[in-house]
Amino acid sequence: MSVLVTGGAGYIGSHAVQRLLAEGHDVVVVDNLFRGHLAAIDRLRQRAKGGDRLGFERLDIGQTDAIEAIIRERRIETIMHFAAWTYVGESVEKPVDYYTNNTAGSLSLIRACERSWSHSHGGVKRFVFSSTAATYGEPPAEHVPIRENCPQHPINPYGASKLMVERMLIDAVSAAARHGRNFGAACLRYFNVAGADRTGLIGEDHDPETHLIPIAIQAALGKRPGLTIFGDDYPTPDGTCIRDYVHVEDLADAHVTVMQKMRARETVAYNLGIGRGYSVREVASAVERVTGKPIPITIGKRRAGDPPALFADPAKIRRELGWNAGWTDLDRIIATAWDWMRHNPDGYKS
Ligand code: UFG
């Protein structure tokens, strides 16, 4: 199958590309390289199984005409849409950028899909969208673990920018069905994505880095003075926030499973998590165990917008598609991030 992957030079997108190539698909990455890494594409081309089937176009997803041309030329049937701005804090400061890049950018892609239905190959049939647990906002305790039918009330522009795309896809898919088009969409709501490809070829390289596991590892490596825990007075067993850490390889696997099994004329949503949560303190202890190095810890103030506990009930995707997270052991997940970061201390610049 020919798959267009937006944001394929980024953290999660590049792992999905690796998996698609390994499964024998033809892939074109569209990435504006604002936060993605050309080096990830180079590494995949040179060293990944099937790397010779990987195309790359430096484009913004807002360039509808250019995207439509790629769909036509490469006979694209599936779009996996990862490209987005993803920092919750930044979204509060720059909401218009988030709605431009995430919401309007996605609308441009959906428009390109719509235009492609008149192409000779029939155009795009599947749209797999990177949504987020941030669309749930602060779910009440009785909704945790979170199922897909939990009310979605995002509490920041990042979550809102993604929820709007879910809504646009629902409407676009039903309108397409009314016009006899075989178009379907899947909204994959990620929990906390972690780890790196087990072969060490690609990994997580964010600038600035805001995520707990890489920050804790940087502290263990001595690249930061320590880890500040954002609040230890939450209503959780040890007072720190609980999150569901899902391995990036499992996430890539889920995308391919969904792509193969999703149906035309419907929009589905799945939570992608392991189904259990770990507290910030548990993560810090696990990083100390895995790295064998102590992490100096300071207790800081709560970070705005952090819900006390977010973890998935992943039963729906298990029941409907047979997908299960393979990586459920926190230490093993962290070990892959540790391997990546110590062998690539400056990320892709290493
Ligand atoms: N944390 C600290 N100190 C740090 C960094 C993080 O205590 O230096 C804490 C946070 O307060 C939070 C937990 O560690 O309680 C995890 O924080 P991350 O920043 O790693 O991840 P978030 O849960 O904030 O957000 C992630 C993604 C979002 C996504 C969300 C969905 O970054 O894009 O998961 O659950 F929306």
Protein model, in words:
With 350 residues, this protein is an alpha/beta fold. The protein has a domain at 2-194 and 245-272: 3-Layer(aba) Sandwich (Rossmann fold). 40% of the residues lie in helices and 17% in strands. A seven-stranded parallel beta sheet has the order 3-2-1-4-5-6-11, with helices on both faces. Strand 5 (126-132), helix 6 (157-178) and strand 6 form a beta-alpha-beta unit. The model has no long low-confidence stretch (mean pLDDT 97). Uridine-5'-diphosphate-4-deoxy-4-fluoro-alpha-D-galactose binds next to helix 7 and strand 8.
Summarize the structure in short.
With 350 residues, this protein is α/β, with parallel strands linked by helices.
Key phrases:
350 residues, alpha/beta, Rossmann fold, 7-stranded parallel beta sheet, 3-stranded mixed beta sheet, 11 helices, binds uridine-5'-diphosphate-4-deoxy-4-fluoro-alpha-D-galactose
